[in-house]
Structure formats: structure tokens, C-alpha cells
Amino acid sequence: MPVYNEKDFIPKQAPGRFPATWEFQTQAPSNIAIIKYWGKKGMQLPMNASLSFLLPQSLTTTKASARLSDKISDKVKFTFLFDGKENASFSKKIAVFFERIVHYVPYVKRYEWTFESENNFPHSAGIASSASGFAALSKILIRLERTLYPEADEILLYHKTSFLARLGSGSASRSVTGTVAVWGTHPGIPGSNDLYAIDYPFEIHREFRRMTDLILLLEKEKKEVSSTTGHGLIDKHPFKHPRIDQARNNLSRLSEALQQGDWDSFGQITENEALTLHAMMMTSNPYFILMQPETLRWIRLIWDFRNKTGIPVYFTLDAGANLHLIYPDVYEQKILSGLDELTQAEKIINRIRL
Ligand code: PMV
């Protein structure tokens, strides 16, 4: 598998012709990190390597309509509609995204764009809506590139999709690959690099073939501190270097657990990563807490249930208060009847198939 560098993603010549109008609709899933990305360097490069699972039923759908423009401007001209309405805060993020990527996709400036986007899950609630959103936008742009450059190399375009998505939101780089993605250089994962995510290259044990990620919607309010702010606090964080070492070791151990079918180690590492992420927030300067009392109450319920039954159900957290429960499908009935509050709770279920 070739590893591309940044220059490989710059088109070498202008396309032969531009269609006068162009339309395309696509979907992209969110993802949940098991090994967390928290802290960046340079232009959206990760401080440590991360590993995630796609959440195939938590989707952003985006439709693009492009019209060839008479004038080529420096800025990309676009209108962005979310749930049918203009959304100033999303539009601002997308304008920044275009500024960062235009060098790699200069052809986008030839068009005036309308994007219509919607999620089938609540945004800004610790479910990575920016991941699926930027992944969908990147898939659209690469589809246009494929139309303009019919000879382009498919593998290069596959990685370029992740490369572009990363420049929107780091975790978005992991929403355009297969089910298990690795983003960031790690000595034990061949092909892994900081510029784009790759498919996890080793065979995963059949123990993990059918599992569920159940998101407990404990809070739907917009979170108080954005991940951008949180990432920014890592540079001067007293635990920055220990965290880099811990993430590297955790990814090595997780990779072994995935190959060996070891749910116990998988679960211990998953929970350790989730709690470390939040511990890093609580020990930043300024410090902050994104968990809510309900988050902690559920963590205790899950631990009690697991201790009593031995059933492998573990939790993880994104940058928010909502819990993700991860377990092998075969235990679902026992988990639902043992943790009976789960039946009533508001939840989103994703079936992960390896
Ligand atoms: O992609 P961002 O900048 O929203 O950061 C996401 C960070 C976490 O969701 C907390 C962890 C991760 O690896 O997805």
C-alpha cells in the first residue's frame, strides 16, 4: 500500500473540460474512537495515532448542486443549508474548510455551490456530526475530481478523500474508510500516517465480528467547550508527553486484543481511553468537565452489572456527556433485561459488522 505525501494530492494540470452543472448526493457515517485523538500539531495533524469504528447507522446525507461560474474568485462560493435552513455557524466552519483545501481541489473555485445537508441524529451532542459532515463533503469533492480527471488513480483518490476530510475535522478523516480506521503514525500499523486515515490492516478475530455501539442520549444540549478549544489546550498540558506514550501503548495493546479476540483487554483499554480523554480535560488550564451526573451514574451501573454477570459490556465517551455502550450482539437481551432502565432510555443503536 503506497503512502502518499501532501504534494501527491495537488492536481498536476487543469482538467480538460468542466461540465456546466453538476449534482451529486452522498452519505457518510459518524465514527467512535476507541483510541482517542486529543491534541494536534501543525495543520490538523494528530498528536497521537487513533483507532475508530464506523457507526454505519448514524449518517449525514448531503446533496451538492454546482453551477459553472463566469468569474473565478479566490474564495469558494457556496450556500450551505442544514435541515433546509442556512446555518451561520456551520457555514463559517465550511468556509474555513474550503480555505484549507482549495490548494488541493482548485477546480471547486470554478463553481457556485449549494449544499443541502441533514443528519439522522442530533448534532453537537458528543456524536461526531462534524466527522460525518466533513466526510460527506469530501466524498462529494472527490466525486467531482473523478469526473474531471477520469484517469485519476483510485487508491490515491480514496486516501485524498480522508486527507481532505481531515482538514475539516480530524476525526472526519476516519469516516471515509472501512469499518476500522487508523489515523496517525504508529510503529505497529504499516501504512499509518498523520495525513490521512487508513483501513486497519490486520485481520480482526471473529469474536468482534458482530458488535453493537449503543449511544445513550443523556444530554442533547450543545456542549460547553468545543473540541477545537480542547485540542488547543494540549500543547501546554502538563501530561502531554505521558499521554503520547500512553496512546501509543494502548494502540499496540488494542491491536493485539483485536487480533486475538480478547474482549477483556479490548474493554479495559476502551474505558481507559475514555476516562483519560476526560481526565485530560479536567486537568487542562483552564479545566473543564463535559460529563454530567447522569454519565457517572451510568458508568457505575455498567460496572456493577459487569461485575455481577461477567458480561462484556464496556463504555466509551466522545467529547461530550453521552455514553457509548459497546458489547457483542449475542448479549443484547441479557444487557437490556439486566440494565432495565436501558429499555426506556433514549438511545441510538449502531450495528458494527467486521
Ligand atoms: O475531530 P475533532 O476535532 O472534533 O476531535 C474529536 C476528538 C474526539 O472525538 C474526542 C476523539 C476522537 O478521536 O474522535
Q: What is the N-to-C succession of helices and strands? A: EEEEEEHEHHEEEHHHHEEHHE
CA gyration radius, whole angstroms: 20 Å
Reported by name, the CATH topology of the largest domain is Ribosomal Protein S5, domain 2
Mean pLDDT: 95
Class per helix and strand makeup: alpha+beta
How many beta-strand runs? Answer: 13
The geometry reads as globular
Bound molecules: (3R)-3-hydroxy-3-methyl-5-(phosphonooxy)pentanoic acid
Low-confidence sequence ranges: none
- Count up the domains: 2
Mind summarizing the main beta sheet?
7 strands, mixed
Number of helices: 9
CATH secondary-structure class of the largest domain: Alpha Beta
> Mind telling me which CATH architecture of the largest domain this is?
2-Layer Sandwich
> Approximately how much beta-strand content do the residues carry?
15-25%
The amount of helix comes to: 25-40%
Give the termini separation.
Answer: 21 Å
Task: Give keywords.
alpha+beta, 354 residues, binds (3R)-3-hydroxy-3-methyl-5-(phosphonooxy)pentanoic acid, Ribosomal Protein S5, domain 2, Alpha-Beta Plaits, 2 domains
SSE order and pairing:
Blueprint: E1 21-35, E2 40-41, E3 45-46, E4 50-68, E5 77-82, E6 85-86, H1 88-101, E7 111-119, H2 129-148, H3 154-168, E8 180-183, E9 197-199, E10 210-216, H4 227-232, H5 240-260, H6 263-282, H7 293-309, E11 314-317, E12 323-328, H8 332-338, H9 341-344, E13 347-353
Parallel strand pairs: 5-7
Antiparallel strand pairs: 1-4, 2-3, 4-7, 4-8, 5-6, 8-9, 10-12, 10-13, 11-12
Helix pairs in contact: 2-3, 5-6
The protein binds (3R)-3-hydroxy-3-methyl-5-(phosphonooxy)pentanoic acid (PMV).
